[in-house]
Amino acid sequence: MGSDAPPLRHRTIAADDGELIHYYIGGRDNPDAPRLLFLHGLGSNRTRWSRLTAQPFFRQDCRVIVADLRGHGASHARRGIDEETISRDLCALLAHEGAGRAVLIGHCWGANLAVRAWARCPGRIAGLILIEPFVVETLRRGLRVLYAVVRPFLWLIAVAVKGLNALGVKRTTFRLVDYEIYDEWVRSRLTSFWAAVRYMGPWVDLQTMPVVSYLRAFRLLFAYRPPWATVTCPVLSIYGKKADLAESPGQQVAPPCGRALFIEASHFVLTDNMPAVASAIEEFVQQTGGQAAFSSTGR
Prior knowledge:
The protein has helices at residues 50-53, 56-61, 83-96, 109-120, 141-166, 179-187, 193-200, 202-205, 211-223, 269-272, 274-287; strands spanning 9-14, 20-27, 35-39, 63-67, 102-107, 125-131, 235-240, 259-263. It is of the alpha/beta class and 299 residues long. It has one domain: Rossmann fold. Strands 1-2-4-3-5-6-7-8 form an eight-stranded mixed sheet, with helices on both faces. It is globular and about 50 Å long. The model is unreliable at 290-299 (pLDDT under 50).
């Protein structure tokens, strides 16, 4: 099937604060099919999952839901960029779709938010697949120091941008980066550190979403500590062997339950080794109990 898979269908849901959350759904339209909810990372959007969710297992055997998280993609919210509000969005989305118990699959920031959604509505979640979750405590010292240095400046910028927005100075249209295409285009150009900064820096993300939303999400990435120790559902954590965000690979494993899988890839495992990720997800879904595990309605 691959890239010839039909596009996912676009839907929206009104959050409890009135913001529209956009998401995309497809795959097997069967109440007993496993439900999979995909959550992208900071500055990304639904297209991060396009290549993966076009694979036969996901389209033929599963019900696939791909969200544009609040502030990202088509969900152009400038408010509510916090773990509590986004977790409410996700639980409402699952309830709206009658998804029963779903597996949440998140990358980086999306993995952290998946854990918060589990804490809010565990009865709707059958398992978690956390791809390169962002664990602040295990980050390399240089990254933590860098954030400590820039944090006051980011706060000042956020205050200034919020003030301009209040005066009516704001963008109304945003570029949509198709990461299925962009990742392939940029791969051959990442020949140096400065090339990575040029093609993958925050200025790329800022073209796609409100500035204030990006700054709040960036702060949330470092400020929010997911309740790793409370997770009791099945968990698979996937890490790239070549990722260098953590002090050591052994410290990367976030939840104490479940298991960790290390594959040949960098932090961007979906680009570097999508087949390995797809295989791991398929195995997890099948081992978690298949259709029977997803047929009951959560609370």
